Amino acid sequence: MAENEKRKLDIPWVTLLPIVAALAGVVAQYKPLVSVRPAVPSEKSVALAADQDVDARLWQDPLGVVQKERAALEADLQVKKVAPDRVQRHTISALADRIRKSVFQTDEGHVLVLAVMLDSGPYLEQAESRLRARQAVLAGLSESGYVPVDGEHIGFTVQEPWPLVVDSGPFPDASDAKASPTPAGGSLLFAWEQCAAVGDFRPSAAQAIPEVGAEVIERIIVLWLPAASFNSNPLGNFAELLMKLADNKPHDRSEFHVKLIGPANSTGLATMLREITDWDDKNPRRDQALNGVSIFSARATASEKELRDEAAINPAPGVGPPLDKSIEDLINGGVPGNGLQFYRTVLADDSLLGSLIDELELRQVHVAPWHDGKQWNNGDHVAVLTEWDNTYGRALARTFEHEATTRQAPENVHHQIDFFRYMHGIDGRLPGDAPKETKQDDAPKTAATHAPGEASEGLNQADYLRRLAHRLKEEETRRQNAGGSPLRAIGLLGNDIYDKLMILRALRPEFPGAIFFTNNYDAHFELRDEWDDSHNLVIASPFTGTFLLTNGNRIAPFRDSNQTSSYAGTLFAMGKLGDIADITNIANIVRQPHIFEVGRNGAHELIRPISSPNRTSMLKPNPVPSIGFGAWLMGRRVFGYVVLAAGALFFMAGWIILSVVDRRRPGGGGWRDRLKRGSASTPFWLLFGIPVILVLVIAIANAGDAALEPLVFASGISVWPSEMLRLLALLLAIHFLFKARLDLRENEETLTKRYRLAELSADESFWKKIEIGLRRWHKAHGEWLESNARFTAKEAWHAYLLRNQFWPRAIRIGALSIVYGAFSFCVLRLFPEAIAPARGTTAAFADHWIRLAAVSGLVVLMFYVVDAIRLNTNFIRIVTGGVTRWQPKLAVAGGRIPPLKKQELARYYDIKFVEERTEVIAPLIWYPLIVLALIVLARSAYFDNWSWPLSLVLIFTINALWAFGASILLRRAAEQLRRAAIRSLEFLRVKSYNSPERRQMFEELIAEIRGLKRGAFAPLSEQPFVRAVILPSGGLGLLAVAQRLLNIF
Fold it and tell me: What is the pLDDT of residues 974-1023, one digit of tens each?
């Protein structure tokens, strides 16, 4: 028969191949930005006679370039290949002459000396910070109306001896040569370059620097100073440098104005603060040199408390200046005459780390002790890793702990922060080391020469991270065994981006459910190659890659927050942001921290709550641009068009549904029948359900503080796509319940009429039907289970219908769901519960109840399907035992009466009946598996940082196994019925040896039964429960072999 032919796996290649090709194009469209510029051999350039005579483009490290040039110059000096004027142009007096010439070359005669202190260390990250700082400062000058005079060359100056101030004690009078400090025998090497207001960038009088008055600065001399050369006494040595540039006439520095962007880091600021507390009026020449100097601290982020402690201010009560003075007041008032002005243009670490603690609390991680409305609780288990080999790293740990202990909590509760320290530069790479991409020797390497990537000796400290991860895991286990919480969050506080990435690479696999957080934005976190390690990293930063308070559209986003801070400090120093003496203008720069979460498309800035429940802030909030699907949907005129499109789609779907003709209904079915069948179709539910879910989730995502959770789809930082899938799973669970009941009822009616079976009597009471329906088969019909049992098909079908009623099934499903719910609750309590990556109480509340509703719908649907399959399994087993009589003249006899008798066709009727019934029952296994697949997909890391605790894996596995087990038992019962029918027919065939016609008829029946491939009689490879597992994995070939070798079912 054609309907029993083996089904083929029809794959619509014509449709799939274009889709696969399109998806491959989307995936393959990302191309790294690799330059095709050919390599240029390192050749010595032509010597220039200009003051700026060193080849250096604007994106190069200024100190690194001039250090190489000075080394080359000294090498030439040793062989006497240098003209005297080439050495002379790099002296401090030559630079002073250059400044005076710049004054004469300007129309108004005003020049600004802008000194920038740079980190002068030799390591890679320090060289990177220098070139970033140079780009940021020059970009700020460009935005202020100044461009470099020579964009391909830079000058340098050497001052010997240096430093000129060697102690931090009281300064003697410089006019007394005997009292002057003895300078060290070193030298100061710094780079410089000129900038001028030219072309369209030329500033007007209205754009003049405020403290200069109506004067317009036309030339700027930018000094790139190595911070290490000023660390001992930054203000004293800077004053000495200014005196050198003014030809030792500090009182006559009217030829140029001075601004300083520095210190380079928090250690330099602490040194400056320590120096200013010991400053006195014994050196008026230095006081005069610093008169009118403005200092803009754009990179020193240590908190005031840490700066005071480091500078040893107020070590004892009554010692030092009063505590009510700020850092700005201490420095401004430290130099006599109040001629020095200090401005801090970057957010301090205490505010930054406090915002991180608040951010973790939004994500249900309580760093500090917290109150749940009834009692105080200890803080969650949090680990913080900081550098211990520098002052700043140690200060970060103390500041974080201080911010976590400022809450008004009783003494019996405390935080649970574990602090771990590491040494800066974990990879052990030193200046001059060969790059990682070294060419490998083709010769085979022996075990002795091939060192492992992670060794327990040498400079590389990566093995320390492995031991640290093991230590953290042991500590987490110990706390959990004692009834504590697992490790909820891990903080990486420091400045070295490369160290942070190595720590993430070591700890992320061990703690997939923990929230990783850090300070300071860096574009390296956004690289695609780092996504596996940096995904969902929470970042608190004083600045983003873009400074939004100007119209600097000509400038691309910067690489890190320090670079943006240098840019903002330069704009502020140049008066681009208003009068620098106005404190409100500083408040425009020093704002509340930016909070990022690293997504698949880069670092996504998150909206901060208007106020924090744990701390108050006078800082202005930062504007956060609206992006993502929600912003698009709420865009201008978009929502209206979406509503119109949804209305048109609804009309078209209704038109199609009412136009469908059902041949099973008289006259093709009335409009009520067509509407009923159409509303039971899966496309109908998807067509109307998905827009409703979309609108519902968008409404929830914009309610209350739910807006704190971003509404984006493909970035991997939003729970809302997961909630949409869970609501879709709930919708399909309800739909499948309705559809399964409708299909089963129609199949029952069809079989009842076709096989002339008895329907349920309407005379029986409601409670009587429920009582009978809940009784077990072996108790209600124990005699049917005996070996010689004999009963009719009507009796068996009637008993089945009683148990297939709605209320008996609902009671069975409800009882099983309650028991399974209790089991799941216990399992969830046995293992640590994973925190949902939702942000804010509303998002977490919505996630909890949507997840609970979806899982509840899955459980009810699963037990409905299991109950339907199990009931049919029992019915098949009852039929296998003793149905001997079916109604005469059944259409399914196929014209075999005569020569066969209807009693001889009983087994054939059994098989055909079960085949038609299970053809509807067997596919039900797809329903809970589809819903389960959606719930599992909703927890994919593609949408957010979802983790898989062992409890969920166990519960979902049992869900799937339960459904699979019921389907396996159904097929086994059907195969037992098939074997019993074949044995019975074979026996009758033997008895008909003297009737060839009857014998041939029995052989046809046996062959037809053996060849049945529908319903529960389908081959193993075509069973719905097997296809649900094998098809996604492409294992049909292995299954076919297994089916040949092991005929298990």
Answer: 888 888 888 888 888 887 777 888 888 888 888 888 888 787 777 666 66
Domains in the chain (CATH in brackets) are 54-344 (no CATH), 349-429+457-542+590-624 (3.40.50.2300), 680-1018 (no CATH), 1019-1049 (no CATH)
Burial 656-669 (b: 16+ CB within 10 A, else e): ebeeeeeeeeeeeb
User: In terms of C-beta density within 10 A (0-12 exposed, 13-18 middle, 19 or more buried), how is residue 168 classed?
Assistant: middle
Write a three-state SS string for 236-269: HHHHHHHHHHCCCCHHHCCCEEEEEECCCCHHHH
DSSP assignment string, 607-622: PPPSS-SS----SPPP
The residue behind tokens 């596919």 is 923
Give the C-alpha distances (Å, rounded to integers) separating 704 from 610, 708, 721, 840.
12, 9, 19, 9
pLDDT at 755 over 70: yes
Does the pTM surpass 0.70? The reply is: yes
Q: Examine the pLDDT at 796 and tell me if it is beyond 50.
A: yes
Please choose, from the candidates 851, 865, 859, the residue with its C-alpha nearest in 3D space to the C-alpha of residue 821: 859
Alpha-carbon torsion angle 746, 747, 749, 751, nearest 10: 160
Residue for token pair 């005929």: 1047
Q: Give me the chain's average pLDDT, please.
A: 78
Choose the weakest-confidence range: 201-215, 705-719, 947-961.
Answer: 201-215
Nearest alpha-carbon partner for 839 in 721, 718, 733? 718
With H, G, I as helix, E, B as strand and everything else as coil, classify residue 478.
helix
How far is 492 from 534, CA to CA, in rounded Å?
12
CA distance 1010 to 491: 66
Instruction: State both tokens at 814.
Output: 């409800």
List, in sequence order, every residue forming a beta bridge with 489; answer none if it has no partner.
382, 515
Q: Which of 127-141, 245-259, 690-704 has the highest mean pLDDT?
A: 127-141
What's the CA gap between 495 and 345, in Å, rounded? Answer: 18
Q: Closest Cα partner for 64 from 115, 117, 120?
A: 120
Q: Annotate 281-322 with three-state secondary structure.
A: CCCHHHHHHHCCCEEEECCCCCCHHHHHHHCCCCCCCCCCCC
Positive/negative CA dihedral, 376, 382, 388, 391 = negative
Beta-strand runs (E) in 867-952:
883-885
> Omega before 148 cis (within 30°)?
no
**Residues 6 or more apart whose Cβ sits within 8 Å of residue 353:** 396, 399, 400, 403, 493, 519, 540
Tens digit of pLDDT for each residue in 139-192?
A: 999 888 899 998 899 999 999 888 888 764 433 333 333 333 444 558 899 999
What tokens were used for 623? 């504007």
φ, ψ of residue 800 to 5 degrees: the values are -65, -45
Which H/E stretch holds residue 947?
A: none
pLDDT of residue 407: 62
